[in-house]
Amino acid sequence: MPSYVRSPFVMIGQVLGHYRIVESIGAGGMGEVYRASDDRLGREVAVKVLKSELTNDPDRLRRFEQEARAAAALNHPNIVAVFDIGIHNGAPYIVSELLQGKTLRQRMLEGAIPVRQANDFGIQIAQGLVAAHEKHIIHRDLKPENIFITQDNRIRILDFGIAKLATPTLTDERSVVSMTTQTKVGAVLGTAGYMSPEQLRAKPVDQRSDIFSFGAILYEVLTGNRAFSGDTEVDTMMAVLKEDPPEITVGRQGIPPAFDQIVRHCLEKEPDDRFQSARDLAFALGTISSTSTSKQMLALRTGGARLRKWLPWVGAAILLAALGLILGTKLKSEVQPEYRRISFERGTIYAARFSPGSRGTLYSASWNGGPIQLYSTVEDSPLSRPIGFESASLLGLSRTGELALVLRGSHGSRLDFVNGMLARAPLAGGMPREILQDVRWADWSPQGELAVVHHAHGQSRLEFPVGKVLLETQGWLSHIRFSPSGDKIGFMDHPALWDDRGSVCIIDLNGKKNVLSSGWESEDGLAWAPDGKEVWFTAAQGSATSRAIWAVDLAGKQRKILGIPGGIELQDIAQDGRVLATLENERLAMEWSGESESKTQDLSWYDWTLAKDISPDGQEVLFEESSEPAGPNYAVAMRKTDGSPPTRLGDGSVGSFSPDGKWALSVYSGTPQHISLLPVGAGEPQQIYLPDLEHLQNSAAHFLPDGKRIVVVGNERNRPPRTYVVDISGGKPRAVAPDGVYATISSPDGKYLCGFDSAARLTLYPTEGGSPRVLPLSTSGLALSQWSADGRSLYVYRAGDVPLQIYRIEIETGKMTPVRQLIPADRTGVVTIAPVVTNPQGTAFAYSYYQMFSMLYVISGLK
Fold first, then answer.
1. Which of 180, 559, 513, 572 is nearest to 352 (CA)?
2. Per-residue DSSP letters for 777-833?
């Protein structure tokens, strides 16, 4: 009998190599796990000491050592890091990183996992398998006990390199029919329910065996039930070999049908019928995670902040057809693109470019709720590293490796910046050199000069070189890119400030503009083809439910390159034709923060919930839901602050509650356009038609305190938008502010409306007529939320900040006092917090926040 005693208590204090055992933290069928101190490097580690009976066979031990060393070579965020292996008194041990959290099994025992999170977990597991399989390492024992969830919801796959040692091979002498048939009521039947049919039959296994095990795990995560189970181990094995699990929706409602197709494709009995690689599997899941977006951009005129919303991605039939095309499981196509994911953290990618002269990439991202940083990848490696620029986002990368960055900007429309400083810096390192304030887009010419989109005097200006205006517009310009020859600049032209519809254009260096393609419902992302004959871009056309990659030549002839369900944005095109693109999953969520600052309540309905008002009694939040389930005309709804189910009041875009709380105001943008008064309780809706006004602004309609008048923003024929007061009983709208001014925040007595004038100065406009009053306050970059109950202050916030600080600013003195800091419960991926509505007392807040999760892919084979 060896002198090394394998008792958890006796092990405390013993030294294995240079690892001092501190305490036992777990045990399983393969051995015990301890927390240990690495005396050489001064860190805490986990030491797994395996059962000595597993190593009686010297050949088996040798194979274990080989495979464990291979697993140690894996460096991936979704695989537990293995630091060392060794043998102590005949027992092998593995040293790995010490994790804080719980296993997937423990998490499932706590209750149902939300579908969104289940998909996120599935993607992470699949990406870990991609990394392992590419190094020819098969796990062989995937199960919920071997999937670990860290405290920040990151997945780590455990026990790579151990499975081959621990999993017995079924021989002719130990076949399925000769195994025990004893009933094990309530017991976990080992790993039989997760082993592939070929593994049970003792046939050779490859990466497709892990894919089968993955399918069984994902089925259980989504439904709460095991895919294969039986009263005995043999019954479970026979279920794996002969039966198919019930449809996913039988165990749980509300799961997208595409999940059932993906899981069943994983669980095919024959390996040739499954996904052939974990990369294909990861892409399929990533496509599903990108199917929830919406379709317009919200204008937050105050503070210059805008949020974009896109057409919701719907249709299981479309999704499955696209997956069949993309993955090539059964159908063949002339173009079969290959997808390689190169980002693996959880968060938001703002911009990405191929590195000049290499197969690497450079991108700016915010991971796991941290600040925006620049990262690089080298050659074909998926591993990224920060390159030393924090709180800076990438705008452009020159052919000689010089960066164009935006510094200290606040978030504007989705992923662009306002009030930021343009700077240039060498990629090799060095302090950025500041150039120009409020530059929102930039690109390098082939000769190394910068073109910029500069926002100045209320105009969006395309300048090249900096200071020389080629084009100026009251709308906004985006995604400028030089042609390969440098004689033209491609860009997107958006005529309206409040959405991202528009055209794809080019302009020469003399300022001659040419519209190549117009009428796009949503457009985002642009790059030139390597030969300079086409401009490629991502956009949604007409009633399409997703953005696709399109190409248009210089004569205006356009063609579709790639259509997939979900949010995709073109980032760059390499000289060899590879495409750099992000797959995006975005939403607008809503939370409530009451008198207790430490307690928040999620009030989101679907995927695009926009906070608009708080009821006079403080018990309800009025909001707009504009995701696909709400319908084409959106939904006006309210929800109690305790999180009770929402009540749908009608269609339209939400304005505000009436002062008595009995009505909700909405703008209906269909035909004919009108304003509706929707009863909160019993009653019939009332319509107010305003034939003198065109294009009523969805986000700018509010009751005045007397409940008899409303404020709207629209425009008379052939005039820019402006603010009007309308009597509910009828009559002609009366303008109360100059052209281009949105002033909808009312004083408690209804005598003034507050807004920003054409020079961005905070101004009071009398509702009964008279001269406006410019307030002597420093309000640069601020957005308005509410007028205080005493009429002496305004509640404001600096749009784009995360976390978001609410201030009370005194009208007469300009003194600003912090009131509340707002931060969503899940900060990861949060780009902006806006809009914010509060009660007049400044004690309760409802706010929406824009959350984007991105995955960066290199796509090959597109033509």
1. 572
2. ---TTEEEEEE-TTSSEEEEEETT-SSEEEEEEETTT--EEEEEEE--SS-TTEEEE
Do 1-98 and 588-786 share a fold? no
Percent of the chain with pLDDT over 90: 40
CB atoms within 10 A of CB 616: 15
Whole-angstrom distance, CA of residue 736 vs CA of residue 571: 44
Category of 643 on φ-ψ map: left (φ > 0), alpha (ψ -120 to 50) or beta: left
What is the amino acid identity at position 187? A
Question: Which residues, listed in sequence order, are joined to residue 16 by a DSSP beta bridge?
Answer: 19
pLDDT of 794-832, one tens digit each? 999 987 788 899 999 999 888 999 999 999 988 888 888
What band does 107 get if pLDDT is binned at 50, 70 and 90? very high
Number of H helices, E strands in the chain: 12, 58
Element of type H or E holding 687: strand 686-688
Domain at 1-98: CATH architecture: 2-Layer Sandwich (3.30)
SS3 212: helix
Phi, psi of 283 (to 5 degrees): -65, -40
Dihedrals phi, psi of 260, to nearest 5 degrees: -65, -40
Which of 741, 773, 770, 743 is closest to 755 using CA atoms?
743
Phi, psi of 636 (to 5 degrees): -100, 125
Whether CATH 3.30.1510.10 fits 102-289: no
Question: Do the beta carbons of residue 421 and residue 406 sit within 8 Å?
Answer: yes
Paired with 854 in beta bridges are 584
- What is residue 357's DSSP assignment? T
DSSP string of 459-506? EEEEESSTT-EEEEESSEEEEEEE-TTSSEEEEEEES-TT---EEEEE
Degrees, nearest 5: CA angle 98-144-347: 65
Q: What is the C-alpha end-to-end distance of the chain, expressed in Å?
A: 68
Q: What is the DSSP string of 35-49?
A: EEEETTTTEEEEEEE
H/E element holding 68? helix 58-72
Per this entry, what is the length of the chain? 863
Work out the mean pLDDT of the chain and round it to a whole number: 82
Averaging pLDDT over each range in 3-17, 621-635, 801-815, which range is the top one?
801-815
Closest CA to 393 of 355, 353, 359: 353
Question: To 5 degrees, how large is the angle CA 619–CA 620–CA 624?
Answer: 165
Could you give the CA distance from residue 638 to residue 647 in angstroms, rounded to a whole number? 5
**pTM score:** 0.62
Q: How far apart are CA 263 and CA 285, in angstroms?
A: 10
Domain residues of the chain, as ranges? Answer: 1-98, 102-289, 588-786
Which residues is 455 bridged to in the sheet? 460
CATH code of the domain occupying 588-786: 2.120.10.30
Alpha-carbon distance of 593 to 820, in angstroms, equals 9
Q: How far is residue 736 CA from its own chain's centroid?
A: 40
Contact 149, 107 (CB under 8 A): yes
Distance of alpha carbon 775 from alpha carbon 247, whole angstroms: 63
pLDDT of residue 356: 87
